Structure formats: C-alpha cells, structure tokens
Amino acid sequence: MKQFIRYVMSLGVFALSSFHTNAQTVGNTPPLDEPMTAQYFQAPYMANAAMAGIDTGLHVTLAYRRQWSGIPGAPESKALSADYMLFKRVGIGMNIYNDKAGLLNNTKVAFTYAYHLPLSANGASALHFGLSGAFIARRLDTQKLNGDVTDPNINAFNRRDNYFEADFGMAFTRKGLTVQAAIPNLVSAVKTRDTDAGIDRALFFAAAGYKFETGEQLSSIEPKVCLRGIKGYKDIVDAGANFAFLQNQLNVFGLYHSTKSFSVGAGANYRSIAGFQVIYNSQTAGLSNYTNGAFEINLTVNLAR
C-alpha cells in the first residue's frame, strides 16, 4: 500500500516538474472548464480540499468527459484525484485536472493537506479543513495549429509563466449530514489586478446534503443542493439526489442546474472496492440547439479500508 501511495504521489511530482516550475507567477489563474460531475456524489474531494482523507483508506478516481461530439476541437476533460487518511485526524490528497478546447490546453496539479477535528467523543460530528497548493499551466497545442507555428505571439504565449494557486475548503459532518464550502483560486481572489477582468474564474462552491439510510433494496437516498459562483456570471444552483440500491451495489442520480441543463448518471459498485459511473450532461439552454451535451465516465478504486 505504501508503495502504491508513493507511486501516486510520484505521478503528481512528475506532472509538476513538466510545468517548468522554475518560472512561476502568483495568481492570475486561467479559466478552467466546468467541473467534473463526479464531484457531486462520487468524489467530493474534487470540489473541496477539506474532503481529503475524510474516510479511511486510499480513494483514487479517474474521470473523463467529452463534450460536443462531432465538432472539431470539442472540449475534452480528464481528471485524476487521490486522497488518503494519513493519520487519525490528517488527510492528504492530490488532484490533477486537464481540459482541452481547440488549441488551448489547461492543466492544474494540486496537493492537499486536510485536518479533521472531531466535535464529539464518538466522532459523530466533526469539522474539516483543507488547503491545497496548485500549479496551473496554460499552453497552445502547436501540433494542431493550422497556421504559422513560428508566429512570435504563439511562442510568447507558450513561454508565459505558470501560475501558483491555492484552494481552501471546510466542511461540517454529523451522521448523514454534510455542509461544506470552498474557495478555489484563493490567490487570485485576494490579489486584484485592474488589467485582469478574471472572467470565468470560479469564486466559491457551497453544498449541503443528507444521506438517508433506508434498507436493503433501496439502500440510501442522498439529496444535495449546491451553489457555485463564477465571476462574470450569475451564481449557479445544482440540485438533485443520488439513489443507491441492493446494498449500494447499484446507483442512479440526477441533477438540475440553474443554467437550464441537467445531469443524469448510473453506476455499479463491487464490494465497496471499485465503482464505475456513466454520466450524461445536457447542454446549457443557450447552446442546446447546436450541441448534444457531454458524456462522462468515472472509475473509483477504494483500497486499504
């Protein structure tokens, strides 16, 4: 197990080293794509650093999403997250997120430290805090460029500094209740620039949900409401529920977004060791006449529980 953890962490170190981190800029985060749907029920650590190591064992999630199929340069997103309860009250994690849209390639690598503070003797309620340090790189794919690759503007764009960022999150849990809030891109939020409008930058994430344990056939119902803030846009509300069946071996879920779109998914779990999800995200109202939405697949592996 320790060797596997070292392998996962080494993967993140390799990703960081590939960013040429000798030249870094603080803040001024480039806009990243929409978050993975896996963050709502399957992998909450993707949305909130405080959720790293909140449960025993090592949790690894792989996610892939393809949008607007049939359109050249359609957005494509990939994510890898891993979190582990290092000590009784300490969790660590790693998040790697990459999205491509046309020639533009964004990559974010984050490492997380989380502290879990019990509020009762039996641990039924607790406060959780998490802080991530991240590096973000934004590059143009010159191999797919239909034009002059020697253009000095293109070379200047790819020589630009990478960015250091920080994400902060906190959560309160009590039995089936989870209330959480997170501030991504904390450095950019604190650091102001008159020349940087920061459009599309994520401002905050908040969520509240309760998991009702029911029985064997219908194992649990987990309704959840989320609020996301994005600079330059109206706040987005996500509301839905996850339904687990047959002692959590199968699940289906649905979410409605205030952007007049929805997400639906279904999955299967094997003895709480591994889970697989297939998700469809409809397109927002403004683009629904031109595209057919996005498909997402997620794989989660739980080890040493």
Provide a concise account of the structure shown:
The chain is mainly beta. It is built from 4 helices and 16 strands.
Could you characterize the architecture of this molecule?
There is one protein chain. With 305 residues, the chain is mainly β. It has a single domain (2-303), classed as Porin (Beta Barrel), CATH 2.40.160. It has 4 helices and 16 strands. It has helices spanning 2-17, 38-41, 152-158, 186-190; strands spanning 24-26, 58-67, 76-85, 90-101, 104-118, 125-140, 162-174, 177-183, 202-210, 212-213, 218-230, 236-245, 250-257, 261-270, 274-281, 294-303. Strands 2-3-4-5-6-7-8-9-11-12-13-14-15-16 form a 14-stranded antiparallel barrel. It is globular and about 65 Å long. The termini are close together. Mean pLDDT is 83; it is low at 4-24 and 28-32. Pfam families: PorP_SprF.
Q: What is the N-to-C order of secondary-structure elements (H for helix, E for strand)?
A: HEHEEEEEHEEHEEEEEEEE
Instruction: Let me know the average pLDDT.
Output: 83
In terms of quaternary structure, what is this? Answer: single chain
Q: Could you state the CATH homologous superfamily?
A: monomeric porin ompg
The tally of beta strands, per DSSP, is 16
The CATH architecture term is Beta Barrel
Sheet with most strands: strand arrangement: 2-3-4-5-6-7-8-9-11-12-13-14-15-16
Question: What would the principal axes of the Cα set say about the shape?
Answer: globular
Text of the CATH class: Mainly Beta
- What percentage of the residues does DSSP assign to strands (E)? over 45%
Question: Please, how many helices?
Answer: 4
Number of domain units: 1
In whole angstroms, how far apart are the ends?
11 Å
Q: Which segments are poorly predicted (pLDDT under 50) over 5 or more consecutive residues? A: 4-24, 28-32
InterPro entries: PorP/SprF_Bacteroidetes
Pfam families: PorP_SprF
Signal peptide: 1-23
Protein name: Type IX secretion system membrane protein PorP/SprF
